[in-house]
Amino acid sequence: MNLEEVLNFRRSVRRYDKNKPIDPEKVKHCLELATLAPNSSNMQLWEFYQITNPGLMAKVSEACLGQSAASTASEIVVFVTRQDLYKKRAKFVLDFEEGNIRRNSPKERQEKRIRDRKLYYGKLMPFIYARFFGLLGFFRVILARTISLFRPMMLEVSECDMRVTVNKSCALAAQTFMIAMANEGYDTCPLEGFDSRRMKKLLKLPHGAGINMVIPCGIRDGNKGIWGERGRVPFDEIYHRI
């Protein structure tokens, strides 16, 4: 399939054929492709949990409020946000960038670029992603709004804003995964209806982790899992060329 065919094939499938298993290695490869998704400052504050154990899948299905997409799935993938790993991921990106600059930048510009990356990932990212009962976020908002009086400045820097940023990046990875799965002829259904507390307990996640999306996977059971035609708001109503 070409890209247009893949996008038309992908539907939110809510019932899967249990007699048609999917290949766990292909699902894993689709998750590898998901890591190529764009994400804010390349911080990659995500984790992917591919669930194939039948016992655990049953418990996850229960945590998904018993939805048929989860209860009939061959596998379930949980996309997890890990804002709590911001220091570790910032260090990883900084270490990578230092080598990347030395390998690919003109020698006369390398030292400045490395200094810039050290400032960005060594100081700014830890400051932006840090959390402390909302107080750090409040301070960042005041600082950003003050700076914006004199020059353009990103204003969405509260602790709530950064949580949104992390979830947006993770959602891009989830969408990339679903497109990759469609290219394999596999079906998915992104779920936001679940008990996040129970889900975190099942996956043994720390307090600082969050559940972004739960995606049951399988092969559609004929037309039983697709609720009729795909409905979209008329394009002219949402498209603006200025």
TrEMBL record:
<comment type="similarity">
    <text>Belongs to the nitroreductase family.</text>
</comment>
<keyword id="KW-0812">Transmembrane</keyword>
<dbReference type="GO" id="GO:0016491">
    <property type="term" value="F:oxidoreductase activity"/>
</dbReference>
<feature type="transmembrane region" description="Helical">
    <location>
        <begin position="119"/>
        <end position="143"/>
    </location>
</feature>
<protein>
    <recommendedName>
        <fullName>Nitroreductase domain-containing protein</fullName>
    </recommendedName>
</protein>
<dbReference type="InterPro" id="IPR000415">
    <property type="entry name" value="Nitroreductase-like"/>
</dbReference>
<keyword id="KW-1133">Transmembrane helix</keyword>
<keyword id="KW-0472">Membrane</keyword>
<feature type="domain" description="Nitroreductase">
    <location>
        <begin position="9"/>
        <end position="218"/>
    </location>
</feature>
<keyword id="KW-0560">Oxidoreductase</keyword>
<dbReference type="Pfam" id="PF00881">
    <property type="entry name" value="Nitroreductase"/>
</dbReference>
<dbReference type="InterPro" id="IPR029479">
    <property type="entry name" value="Nitroreductase"/>
</dbReference>
